[in-house]
Amino acid sequence: MSASVAPPRWLAWVPVITAAGLIIGALLTIGGVINQVREQDRRITVLEQRDEQLRAIDARTTRIEAKLEVLAVPNSTGSKAP
Description:
Blueprint: H1 14-71
């Protein structure tokens, strides 16, 4: 009595399911990386804009300080004011 037992039908699909899972996982990972790159790019853009604003403020401050130095009345003793 040698009865041959056939393997289950779903067993033939295991390599296909495994390959599909790997491809889906890779796509999700790549999508996450792309999302992180976009977020970092947005943050860099914001920081560059803030840097430009700070440089503009610094330039205005320098001009104001120069004007104040010109307008300042010198001391009669000749020493600089603190």
